[in-house]
Design a protein that fits this description.
Strand content: under 5%
Order of helices and strands: EEHHHHH
Length: about 110
Amino acid sequence: MAGNKVVICGVNTSKLPLLSEDEKRALFARMNAGDKSAREEFIRGNLRLVLSVIQRFSGNNIESSDDLFQVGCIGLLKAIANFDTTKNVRFSTYGVPMIAGELRRYLRD
């Protein structure tokens, strides 16, 4: 597994957790109740989502992967802040366009 280790911004991507939809719903409920540790856990559990989105933009050799990852994380944070749990939508359905939009804005500007 050491061959699959990729470190971006000091994060070992091979060690990132995966969250099920039930876990995401439970974490959102805890976040809405004010639990800051749930927010951190949710962010950490969705960093792979950021990685999957930045792969689309990594063919662009103008920016480093670290920079794209950081901008993607900003998009993730915005998606978490604006996600409406009352809608019957998976977080990734909402988060991917938010992350991609943040990356597009960064590359455009």
